[in-house]
Hints:
Layout: H1 7-29, H2 55-61, E1 63-68, E2 73-78, H3 79-90, H4 97-117, E3 130-131, H5 142-149, H6 151-166, E4 171-175, E5 178-179, E6 184-185, H7 196-199, H8 214-217, E7 222-227, H9 229-236, E8 244-245, E9 248-249, E10 252-257, E11 263-268, E12 271-274, H10 275-282, E13 289-294, E14 297-303, E15 311-312, H11 313-321, H12 326-333, E16 338-341, H13 342-346
Parallel strand pairs: 1-3, 6-15
Antiparallel strand pairs: 1-2, 4-5, 4-16, 7-14, 8-9, 10-11, 11-12, 13-14
Helix pairs in contact: 3-4, 3-6, 4-6, 4-11, 4-12, 5-6
Amino acid sequence: MKYKLTRTQQSWIRWLAVWLASFTAIVVLVPGLLVRTGPGKEPEPAPPAAEQPSAARQQDELLIPVYRAKEKRTEKMALEQYVRGVVAAEMPIEFEPEALKAQAMAARTYIVRRLLDGDQSNVPDVHALVTDTTSHQAYVTDEELRQRWGDEAFLSRIDKLKRAVEETRDLVLTYQGKPIEASFFSTSNGYTENSEDYWNFTVPYLRSVPSPWDAKLSPRYKETVAFTSKELQRKLGLPGAVPVSAGSPLGIKVIEKSQGNRIKKLSIGGKLLTGREVREKLGLNSSQFQWSWSGGEWRFTTFGYGHGVGMSQWGANGMAMEGRKAEDIVKYYYAGIAIDRASNLLVGKTFQQNRFSRV
């Protein structure tokens, strides 16, 4: 005997068949929804992408402790904020944008190198990494710049400065995977200097290269200063006055010059000195100098301004004026280097031993 379903029963059976078909499709298409990570445990959802740590975010959070010399206190600031203040202090804002960008990469490299090395040399506070003086890198705040430039000029100049830093954000200069000694100076005498000719140790990327732009552009390219005979004797620690005969200076003789055409060794009044010693003792702009005796004074004429090792700032500006990019500039003055990211070098590093903390 056949059992006959009512209309209501037939409708319920059709609805149940449709529901089962939909459930089967879900199981087939999304099996992961039914997978458990263990007995009685549901899988934990992955954190949103914005919450996952990244090398760039870690680098952004890193604070640089800077000893403010005038205030005699240490102030912590973000890495890119520090770089901006260094560029503003170390290079004229009137320079070309690509020169400012080259300076930003050099400044960032300098501080990242010290951070990785735990180098706190010449810092009076054990909690600081650098000072804001030329013993390390000069640094100024936005407020100090506003006072220096005035309110009207500040707006356009700070925007130019911010762009130079932002467009090189996170970029550092490396050699064989490590941050370089990114030394720089104001004005060359026409050439940069090999590192060993000034510091007595060889750095493979700090090689002498021509820098012809400085002589045309820099107001510090050539200067003359005068000393009395007694001043010269005292400052150089000479046993006696440097002899002069018939108005012509005697007793000064160059013994050796560097590849960068600076004086390496010379004899003055019978005393052997290096060009660097004479420069520092007399406060000269450069270790390339000439001398003369006139009107009862010694006159020393210098060519260039600074130690001469690494990137010439006025040379960098000259290259930028010719259309060269920041990458071209740094790779010209620092031989054989690469450009890397600070976040790549800093990721996974801890700085507790150096007393440096994150936000």
